[in-house]
Input
Amino acid sequence: MRLNENGTVRLAGLQSEVFFAVMLLGPVYQKYGLELVITAGTEMYYADGRRIHMIGSKHGTGEAVDLRSRDVPKACWTRFVADCRAALTPEFDFVVEGHHFHLELDVKDTT
Ligand SMILES: [Zn+2]
Output
């Protein structure tokens, strides 16, 4: 597991639940021979002031990270995503976005 190459990922304020969820995904990436690369953390702005994530995004509150998806072969894409979701608890959303996976803590009311 590692961070992206350009050094933009910020980890300060990341919730421990999200960290743990990333750890749970490690073996899935390993199973497919892939490296888990975190491409976004709690940062909300680029150095030039442009916004990275949508307003209200859980990145800013430390409840989301983005993971690189481009290394996942098309042939096993569906199986890979299913395996990732199965490795997590229902408290997490594993969302396929354009060029990354968005992992988000989204606790559903269970009371
Ligand atoms: Zn995201």
About this structure: Residues 40, 59, 64, 66, 102 surround zinc ion (CB under 6 Å). The mean pLDDT is 93. The two ends are 35 Å apart (CA to CA).
